[in-house]
Amino acid sequence: MYFPSKKDWWMTIIIWLCAGFFMIPPVFLPDFGVWMTPDFLDKQWIKIMVLFPIGLVLIWIWSKTGYRIEGNSLIIRSGPFKKEILMDEIYRIRETKNPFTAPALSMHKIEIYYGKYDFVSISPENKTAFISELKERNANIQTDTSIQSIR
């Protein structure tokens, strides 16, 4: 079962502005001499080869961040990055608004604790269905009271 990431409007704006900054200037904008750059960066092809792929990866992350529950594993995808967690290793889920990086496009996240000391923050669009699916496959998962209220 696939669960896309919830996308906050401000995160969407930031990602698209950064992607545009990396992709458009090296291709279309002339050099106005405003910034001091090393001579080797004045070569247009170097700007395209370095900056354009960064912009493409940002768009890839924005469009392909999601979470799939297949068999006995949770597969987390964020653009080119992939992480797989076995259901049996998950022991706790809690709600968080942690602003630090995670394979999530929203501040409204859930933290999944697995293994001995590992955790990952994700932001499924439909938290209720996501948590229900996880608990259906692993009844031993503990949830905090804030999460139990959305179930």
Descriptive report:
The structure is a single chain. This protein is an alpha+beta fold. It has one domain: Pleckstrin-homology domain (PH domain)/Phosphotyrosine-binding domain (PTB) (PH-domain like), CATH 2.30.29.30. It contains 4 helices and 8 strands, in the order βααββββββαβα. Strands 1-2-3-4 form a 4-stranded antiparallel β-sheet. Strand 3 and strand 4 (81-86) form a beta hairpin. The chain is elongated, with a radius of gyration of 20 Å. The mean pLDDT is 84.
Structural class: alpha+beta
Q: Could you report the average pLDDT, rounded to the nearest whole number? A: 84
User: Could you give a short account of the major beta sheet?
Assistant: 4 strands, antiparallel
| C-alpha geometry | elongated
Uncertain runs are none
Rg: 20 Å
Which second-level CATH architecture applies? Answer: Roll
Produce a short descriptive summary.
The chain is of the alpha+beta class and 151 residues long.
Features:
transmembrane, alpha+beta, PH_YyaB-like, four-stranded antiparallel sheet, PH-domain like, elongated, 151 residues, four-stranded mixed sheet
Task: Chart the SSEs and their pairings.
Blueprint: E1 2-4, H1 9-28, H2 44-63, E2 65-70, E3 73-78, E4 81-86, E5 90-96, E6 109-114, E7 118-122, H3 127-137, E8 142-143, H4 145-150
Parallel strand pairs: 5-8
Antiparallel strand pairs: 1-2, 2-3, 3-4, 5-6, 6-7
Helix pairs in contact: 1-2
